[in-house]
Design brief:
The chain is of the alpha+beta class. It has a domain of 158 residues: Umud Fragment, subunit A (Ribbon), CATH 2.10.109. It has 2 helices and 13 strands, in the order H-E-E-E-E-E-E-E-E-E-E-E-E-E-H. A hairpin with a 2-residue loop joins strand 5 and strand 6. The N terminus is likely disordered.
């Protein structure tokens, strides 16, 4: 039986699908550079750290203005759509609210509206009896007025001196104040849909629905929000008024 001769350093031929030991790959020779030591002249130099530069005065001002702008936009959106502060300038709501009271008004009590828009984008509730609300009138669009909701759509309203009747029922009003025994009568008249009837708590010193010339009814869409709380007051009894709910 003959055998094939192999030449040293030359791979053998394939026999029966196998490789002879001489056919295995020899390891790659090491590069010549690895066999020599690296001279100190070619050693890596340490990287130098770059010191951060301090912002200039102009950059500081620009950063401050950006932050201030964001804050002002957020404050404006909150004031226009969520809550707004008002100061009471007159005595038409005495004794509930006094001159110099500062109150917070919720603008989300009845619906949502965009800034500078009178009508609600989405309305989910309507004012109820006894709510104290801030509103504007068509003949005084730049004047904020605060009164109490007395009549809602469908109510039959009648005022006789110091007595208030809603749907022919005499109302108990512990918050109402009469100094001149009731100077203005009203009704009976029924509140139309989409409107409300307003009175001040200081009945003889309040220019409210009884005195409005064009119509005694206020369109609900003109209600800005419901009074929530007294957060500050210049009234002499201010200590007893801070944090008091408006109701």
């Amino acid at each position: 039986m003959s055998t094939e001769q192999t030449t040293p350093g030359v791979p053998s031929k394939i026999v029966k699908g196998t490789l002879s030991p001489a056919a295995t790959e020899a390891p790659l020779p090491e590069s010549s550079s690895s066999s020599h030591s690296t001279s100190p002249a070619h050693s890596a130099q340490p990287a130098t750290e770059t010191q951060p530069t301090a912002p200039t005065a102009t950059q500081e001002v620009i950063s401050f203005l950006k932050t201030l702008s964001i804050f002002l936009v957020i404050a404006f959106l909150l004031r226009a759509s969520v809550v707004e502060a008002f100061k009471i300038p007159s005595g038409s709501m005495i004794p509930t609210l006094r001159i110099g009271d500062h109150i917070l008004v919720s603008k989300l009590s009845y619906g949502f509206r965009l800034p500078f828009v009178t009508k609600f984008i989405y309305q989910f509730a309507e004012p109820q009896h006894g709510d104290i609300v801030v509103f504007t009138r068509p003949d005084e669009p730049d004047t904020n007025i605060i009164k109490r909701v007395i009549g809602i759509p469908g109510d039959l309203i009648e005022v006789r001196q110091t007595k208030l009747f809603i749907n022919n029922q005499l109302q108990y009003e512990p918050y109402a104040r009469y100094e001149l025994n009731g100077i203005k009568n009203f009704g009976p008249e029924r509140v139309p849909e989409g409107h409300i009837f307003m009175l001040g708590d200081n009945r003889d010193h309040s220019r409210d629905s009884r005195f409005w010339e064009e119509t005694p009814w206020l369109e609900i869409q003109r209600v800005k929000g419901r009074a929530l709380i007294i957060y500050w007051s210049w009234d002499p009894s201010w200590r007893d008024r801070l944090g008091k709910l408006v109701q």
